[in-house]
């Protein structure tokens, strides 16, 4: 096992553990482990105990996975160990999260937490009559970086060597070199285009999605949600630009314009790490749906006498999956985690989207199998 594998093993397991450990704290307080509870019940003892148990389990799973992977990586391919280990750790953490959600549901039913509450829903039509205006010029930096990378690539294309680096190791110069081909050489640019277009499409869908309005405080939550959407759009623009900048650095290294060195690798990774820091800051200051934003003085006493309607029956797998055939919404805010979204799998468009993803996955598996059997000759991207 080389230094790269020794560094990557704890980093990957640590990242997975940190993400799952933080998930309950990033979620809105009224959705512990994907279960809806009234605002006056978020301090119930079963919720606190379940959070502590889940956090302990996630840390133990991470330590066990890391401890088991190190000796295994000495006997076999470290990349296989990392892939299988991370997959197993994610599944274990997901199982713990789902079990925690079931415990909250049991406590909720046993304590009759919605007993005597007037349940309701609220719609704010101003999101349709006066939709949030987003300055789409925020995508210009990402598009400019993409354009600049394309120009550099076109200029460099005639002088590319016969083989390109495999981009392994801390200096991105290890591994067997790969024969120069269009798809391998253009991979970073294709990824940049996907990031730029994907950001625009996702933000457009989010801005048109149904807003999350609390029936207990509709005016306050509507204002916070507008602030949240505006911040989310700006965060999306920043993340796209940072991702494209990192991909531009990878392209320069792949085309051997940027020399191989650990410092160069750090410089390449810095933009995407800065974007990750911005995401964490956004979640801690604004939070999903803007729930961390304080009330304005005029909103402090707002009370309608209602609590948001309990619709747990439509949410599955710990608040990750939403299935409601009676809901016309296609894109909805996910319960689990922070600023995450999911498809309504009860909507016809949701079925079509999932079917399309399954077909793409099956086609990729079939193509890889055909390549292995010699039926097809796919371009070798060396796992890029």
Automatic annotation (TrEMBL):
Keywords: Membrane, Transmembrane, Transmembrane helix. It comes from the Bacteria. The chain crosses the membrane at residues 6-23, 54-74, 80-100, 136-155, 182-207, 228-251, 263-282, 349-370. This is DUF5808 domain-containing protein. It comes from Glycomyces buryatensis.
């Amino acid at each position: 096992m080389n230094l790269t594998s020794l560094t990557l093993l704890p980093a990957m397991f640590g990242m997975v553990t940190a993400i799952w450990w933080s998930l309950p704290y990033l979620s809105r307080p009224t959705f512990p482990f994907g279960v809806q509870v009234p605002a006056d019940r978020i301090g119930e003892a079963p919720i606190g105990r379940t959070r502590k148990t889940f956090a302990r389990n996630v840390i133990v799973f991470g330590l066990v996975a890391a401890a088991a992977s190190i000796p295994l990586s000495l006997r076999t391919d470290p990349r296989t160990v990392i892939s299988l280990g991370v997959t197993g750790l994610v599944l274990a953490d997901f199982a713990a999260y789902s079990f925690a959600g079931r415990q909250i549901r049991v406590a909720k039913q046993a304590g009759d937490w919605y007993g005597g509450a007037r349940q309701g829903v609220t719609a704010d039509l101003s999101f349709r009559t006066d939709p949030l205006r987003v300055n789409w010029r925020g995508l210009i930096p990402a598009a400019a970086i993409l354009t600049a990378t394309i120009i550099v690539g076109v200029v460099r294309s005639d002088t590319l060597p016969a083989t390109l680096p495999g981009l392994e190791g801390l200096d991105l110069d290890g591994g067997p070199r790969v024969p120069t081909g269009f798809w391998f050489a253009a991979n970073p640019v294709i990824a940049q285009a996907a990031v730029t277009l994907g950001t625009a499409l996702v933000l457009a869908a989010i801005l048109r999605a149904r807003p999350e309005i609390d029936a207990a405080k509709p005016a306050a939550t509507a204002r916070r949600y507008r602030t949240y959407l505006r911040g989310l759009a700006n965060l999306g623009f920043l993340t796209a630009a940072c991702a494209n900048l990192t991909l531009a650095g990878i392209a320069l290294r792949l085309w051997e314009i940027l020399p191989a060195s650990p410092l160069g690798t750090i410089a390449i990774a810095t933009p995407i790490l800065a974007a990750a820091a911005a995401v964490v800051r956004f979640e801690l200051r604004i939070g999903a749906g803007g729930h961390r934003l304080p009330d304005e003085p005029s909103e402090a006493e707002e009370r309608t006498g209602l609590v948001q309607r309990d619709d747990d029956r439509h949410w599955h797998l710990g608040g990750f999956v939403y299935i409601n055939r009676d809901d016309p919404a296609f894109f909805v805010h996910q319960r689990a985690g922070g600023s995450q979204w999911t498809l309504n799998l009860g909507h016809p468009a949701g079925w079509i989207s999932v079917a399309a993803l399954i077909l793409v996955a099956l086609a990729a598996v079939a193509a890889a199998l055909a390549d292995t059997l010699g039926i097809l000759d796919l371009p070798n991207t060396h796992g890029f």
